[in-house]
Amino acid sequence: MAISSMNFIVGFQTLLFLTILPLFHCESIHELLASKGLPPGLVPKDVKSFNLDENGLLEVHLHAPCFTKFENRVFFESVFKGNLSYGKLSGLEGLQQEELFVWLPIKDIIVDDPSSGLILFDVGVVHKQFSLSLFEDPRDCKPENKQQHQQRISYTSGVSRKKNGFDVS
């Protein structure tokens, strides 16, 4: 009985070690994403640092907030984070996608079936499907200027300020 429980413990520790080991050997965020069934191009080229904790919380630090374009424009805060599991980044914070001049927060990014060639962006009010091929290679990310910041914030707030029925600045 003692030998069998000892074998179970050793087997469990080995399995745990083999499951966690790949997470610590990834040299870049792009390798980490690929090891988790996500395309490496989801994250811009120039990443300052990243951290993945034991609970799967991924935090990515960029040098500055920036924009890139896949099919639509995407905005990255200087720090964005989400829960990383195989084929999924969920509970995202710090990512927005432009839809018809409105900036919507990206909540989840999911690759259910890699053979389908599709990736799903959940922006709350709508789910957008894109070709995985759009995200094969990491892209350059352009810094946000003051005008872009003001436009994005005014679109994101969704609140128009009115006085006597007219928009005011």
UniProtKB/TrEMBL annotation:
Gene3D superfamilies given in the database record: At5g01610-like (2.30.240.10)
Highest taxon of the lineage: Eukaryota
Keywords, alphabetical: Membrane, Signal, Transmembrane
Secretion signal, residue range per the UniProt entry: 1-26
UniProt feature, compositional bias: Polar residues: 148-159
Pfam families recorded: DUF538 (PF04398)
Region feature (Disordered): 141-169
Keyword Signal listed: yes
Keyword Membrane: yes
Name assigned to this protein: Transmembrane protein
Annotated organism of origin: Thalictrum thalictroides (Rue-anemone)
